[in-house]
Amino acid sequence: MPAEPHSRRPAVGEGPMMRLALIGLAILFLAAFLALPLVAVFSQALAKGVGAFLKGLADPDALSAVRLTLTVAAIAVPLNLVFGVAASWAIAKFNFRGKSLLLALIDLPFSVSPVISGLVYVLLFGLHGSFGPWLRDHGVQIIFAVPGVVMATVFVTFPFVARELIPLMQEQGVEDEEAAIVLGASGWQTFRLVTLPNIRWGLLYGVLLCNARAMGEFGAVSVVSGHIRGKTNTMPLHVEILYNEYNFVAAFAVASLLALLALVTLAAKAALEWRFADQIAAAKR
Amino acid sequence: MAIEIRNVEKTFGAFTALGGVSLDVRSGELLALLGPSGSGKTTLLRIIAGLDHADAGEVSFDGQDTRDRAARDRKVGFVFQHYALFRHMTVFDNVAFGLRVKKKAERPAEMDIRRRVDQLLTMVQLSHLATRYPSQLSGGQRQRVALARALAIEPKVLLLDEPFGALDAKVRKDLRKWLRHLHDDMHITSIFVTHDQEEALELADRVVVMNHGQIIQVGTPAEVYDHPADSFVFDFLGGVNRLNGVIEAGVARLDGKAVRVDGAVGADGPAVIYVRPHQVELGVAPAEGVPEGKWSARVSSLHAAGPVARLELDLAGRALEAQLSRDRLSDLALEVGSWCTVDFRHARVFPAKS
Hints:
The complex is a heterodimer.
Chain A: H1 16-45, H2 49-58, H3 60-93, H4 99-111, H5 114-125, H6 132-137, H7 146-157, H8 159-172, H9 175-182, H10 187-216, H11 219-225, H12 235-244, H13 248-275, H14 277-284
Helix pairs in contact in A: 1-13, 2-13, 3-7, 3-8, 3-10, 5-7, 5-11, 7-10, 7-11, 8-10, 9-10, 10-13, 12-13
Chain B: E1 3-12, E2 15-25, E3 30-34, H1 41-49, E4 56-61, E5 64-65, E6 76-79, H2 91-100, H3 110-123, H4 139-152, E7 157-161, H5 169-186, E8 189-194, H6 197-203, E9 206-211, E10 214-219, H7 221-226, H8 231-236, E11 241-248, E12 251-254, E13 257-258, E14 269-275, E15 280-284, E16 295-303, E17 308-315, E18 318-325, H9 326-332, E19 339-344, E20 348-351
Parallel strand pairs in B: 3-8, 3-9, 6-7, 7-8
Antiparallel strand pairs in B: 1-2, 1-4, 4-5, 9-10, 11-12, 11-14, 12-13, 14-20, 15-19, 16-17, 16-19, 17-18
Keywords (chain B): ATP-binding, Cell membrane, Membrane, Nucleotide-binding, Sulfate transport, Translocase, Transport
Pfam family, one (chain B): TOBE_3
Protein name (chain B): Sulfate ABC transporter ATP-binding protein
């Protein structure tokens, strides 16, 4: 008698029917909630042909929104890269008073609604806010201007890099750094030659996620930007304006561009993972 | 290089890791810091390296206080328990690290670095693995890379934290012998931390036994093994039988019979008699009675694999372990359940802890 097939099943495995059901459920869910909307965005954008699509994108206000979004990301991501590395370095490698407070603060942007984050900036820097009169007297405008948009974005995207790095650095401990220092390396050499290479993959994921969110942030930015066309409108805000004006093709054209940026980010991540699979495995060891 | 350690204290919160430790490390010797976990041995090693700072006391290298010398300026070779190899660098780059991070004025030319690293890799027998990454090496190979990396900066002192702790028994033995030869060739002052008494006794020139942040005894392996300072050292340096007896009028007694003991006997009162298993002398039981000055015991189990036979005996209700050669065992013709006489060649007595 040949062995019964089910007798070879691993102890933790499920039966074939169960497995099929689970996989099917996962795919169905992904298709309904993730893939379908994405397809809808692109099909709506192209509903009236490529000409209308391109016209929507070539609009000066749309171009200005694209420019602002890229500018904001280009400022917010490097800032949060530095802050994130510094904060996780401090938390993972040192013991100090207020460490758990710092940890809680890092999570604040995740736990607070972005709208509230935006409102806080208005209350602080707005014309009637705490620093408003002083800023006005010195000719600095933050709210309803680009600095406000940048600040709100930095606030909202702060946790991404730090959250990615803290568990990684805590797990790696300080032995590698100690080894480098005993071998005569300076603090900067230790960071550049030992710490940074040890965290580079976590750092890359953090930066990619941070970037995706910086480009896509709506709530906080919406409160502080003032929606001034061609000036303080980012892509997500511009999409909303166009949509509210029943300019569906243009709205979806900009939206599809935004979605495309996100897809490029994801593709870059996947490509890097594929290209450096052995290094990532070695780093995890 | 000689190292003088004077009254070094270190606490972590409420825990006293080192409570006023003083020690002289002689130039060129191989010294073992031996003790159970939490005895302060690793803390002492890290203070010497400059990775931790003493709360009080001083450490000097060749008479120079090290307080103001940062770890990176101490020229100390440190081998970590888990190797701490840089995982994104090849074996070669790991070993070259200490040379490449030198200030420009002191840094050797890349060609000289290459030569020096090749030399070190030959010495640790890993030249053929120079382009591998640490994750592709076995534990023993990683340990040797860590050693080569530490030696690359030509340290004045080599510090090793549980260097064989993470290796399996066979590799550990080989590496131990190899390290001893290496030390004999290089004569670099070396200190290693271990909780394995066999390792300390076999490898070191001198052994420092530590417990609860204190140094209990310093001596050659033979000194600490044959003349342990107290019951802790006796206990820690290998298998021992502890038999409850008494001290009466300056004589140690077990079941009323006098026990010949080495060293001081101590004050009258309850006492513990310490005997190593190989110091238990067994004899053929006579047909009747027990000979003068000896005890009688029954064999409760017998392990006779290898050159040495291990017996567990029942001595008036106490478990007693004995070791003797296989030849002696067959002369005595002992088996489980048979009776024999017991005597102690060497024993020590310490007052019972209340």
